[in-house]
Amino acid sequence: MTERRVSLDELPTGRFHRRVALVAAGGPFCDGYLLGIIVVALPLIARDLHLSAAQAGLIGAASLLGMFVGGIVFGPMTDRFGRQSMYVLNLAVFVLCSIAHLFVTGATALFALRLVMGIALGADYPIATALASEFLPRRLRGPVLSSLVLCLWVGYTLSLATGLFVHTGDSSTWRYVLASAAIPSAIFLLLRLNIPESPRWLVSVGRIDEARRIVETHLGRQADFDHLLTHTSRSAPRTGLGLSSIRELFGRGYGRMVFFCSVFWTCQIAPSFAIKTFQPLLLKSLGVTHVLSGTLVIISFAIVGTALGMLVINRIGRRPLLIVSGTIATLSLFALATPLSALAVFAIALFILFTIAEAAGSALQFVYPNEVFPTDVRATGMGLAMSVSRIGAAAGTFVLPITIAKWGAANGLLIAAGIAALGLLVSYRMAPETRNLPLADSEPPQAREKLSPVSNNEVRT
């Protein structure tokens, strides 16, 4: 009797799928730890190195600037050279750079080191998410990609928790605080070593026999390889680092989705990272006394919010999740800019509400770019959207402490609310619904121009 074949999108969940999800989570966990640990270390660094507000802002934003470079360069490189070939390299950089913090003696060297780490962080987003999305079946894609954001916030929260055990009397301890990121990075580096290349990418570049072997070995004989061949288009020849895929992305009609992903991501992350990086400073300016404990409590709710988004993403869909969470986050920031925040209990409650809502919507940051772009330019689209978002996040992280120092916390939060409102407007006008669509190669948006407004929110990927 002939065994029934099923597409990669409809395969039942297997041990290999769970392994891919676990290993992919390592990168975001380390990302969150690396980005969060600077919050603990920055007050100590400022005191030890006698930093100005501008220098503190630059060091806080350095990794975000590096992520811009990492995404915009390594996204196309991932589409050019493959996912697996660089899957291990960026975590090796995490380990080495974390250890290198022990030898930093000045602000310039620290900025450069954080910049290099940011480049490695930026590379991980298109590499890890593209590889995970291309192996996972459709019903797991939304929850698992959302769980990567959850792991980011788990790493971020754990890094903040280390601040409870840091001796603040010795300002030089910041070097050991930052070097601690080498531990989780080394663990996940070892776990990544044996993950194979994406068969979807191999088919897109014509390496059919390799793709077939990986599908049969890791996904089983029931996986319909012929279906994969039929529904994966071949990529255009690329040379050099593969940066021509950026031009190709726009030339094939995906500019609208690049704009949407970039704007909604930027408008989520710019207020979020700026507020989280300087959460203790904000709480202190609003009259909260136990600022580190308050910061830890508030940030821990990001785990709650992301878990909530992960649970409902397949039930209510991508578009409703983005719009509802964006509305609540925006209103929370506007409320924080009013006299209500003068009472510590209201300030903390509003920050918690913002954190939960923003984190629930942030689950879509890994989902949308991997579902609206086809295989041969998926990492390019993901990397480009992430890079643009980091420019906004870096600007917000740099500007917020200066704004607080000159005009007060209320005005800084009002600006953050305006940015969130812009993202909400763009999401309402442009957000597609991709919940029930297979991860096949999409047609450019122009091919769907004649669809009804409701149907036009359904994009094939």
UniProtKB/TrEMBL annotation:
<feature type="transmembrane region" description="Helical">
    <location>
        <begin position="52"/>
        <end position="74"/>
    </location>
</feature>
<dbReference type="InterPro" id="IPR020846">
    <property type="entry name" value="MFS_dom"/>
</dbReference>
<feature type="transmembrane region" description="Helical">
    <location>
        <begin position="380"/>
        <end position="402"/>
    </location>
</feature>
<feature type="transmembrane region" description="Helical">
    <location>
        <begin position="110"/>
        <end position="132"/>
    </location>
</feature>
<dbReference type="InterPro" id="IPR005829">
    <property type="entry name" value="Sugar_transporter_CS"/>
</dbReference>
<dbReference type="InterPro" id="IPR005828">
    <property type="entry name" value="MFS_sugar_transport-like"/>
</dbReference>
<feature type="transmembrane region" description="Helical">
    <location>
        <begin position="320"/>
        <end position="337"/>
    </location>
</feature>
<protein>
    <submittedName>
        <fullName>MFS transporter</fullName>
    </submittedName>
</protein>
<feature type="transmembrane region" description="Helical">
    <location>
        <begin position="173"/>
        <end position="191"/>
    </location>
</feature>
<keyword id="KW-0813">Transport</keyword>
<feature type="domain" description="Major facilitator superfamily (MFS) profile">
    <location>
        <begin position="20"/>
        <end position="435"/>
    </location>
</feature>
<feature type="transmembrane region" description="Helical">
    <location>
        <begin position="408"/>
        <end position="428"/>
    </location>
</feature>
<dbReference type="Pfam" id="PF00083">
    <property type="entry name" value="Sugar_tr"/>
</dbReference>
<feature type="region of interest" description="Disordered">
    <location>
        <begin position="437"/>
        <end position="461"/>
    </location>
</feature>
<dbReference type="GO" id="GO:0016020">
    <property type="term" value="C:membrane"/>
</dbReference>
<dbReference type="GO" id="GO:0022857">
    <property type="term" value="F:transmembrane transporter activity"/>
</dbReference>
<dbReference type="InterPro" id="IPR036259">
    <property type="entry name" value="MFS_trans_sf"/>
</dbReference>
<keyword id="KW-0472">Membrane</keyword>
<feature type="transmembrane region" description="Helical">
    <location>
        <begin position="144"/>
        <end position="167"/>
    </location>
</feature>
<comment type="similarity">
    <text>Belongs to the major facilitator superfamily. Sugar transporter (TC 2.A.1.1) family.</text>
</comment>
<feature type="transmembrane region" description="Helical">
    <location>
        <begin position="86"/>
        <end position="104"/>
    </location>
</feature>
<keyword id="KW-1133">Transmembrane helix</keyword>
<feature type="transmembrane region" description="Helical">
    <location>
        <begin position="257"/>
        <end position="275"/>
    </location>
</feature>
<feature type="transmembrane region" description="Helical">
    <location>
        <begin position="287"/>
        <end position="313"/>
    </location>
</feature>
<keyword id="KW-0812">Transmembrane</keyword>
<feature type="transmembrane region" description="Helical">
    <location>
        <begin position="20"/>
        <end position="46"/>
    </location>
</feature>
<feature type="transmembrane region" description="Helical">
    <location>
        <begin position="343"/>
        <end position="368"/>
    </location>
</feature>
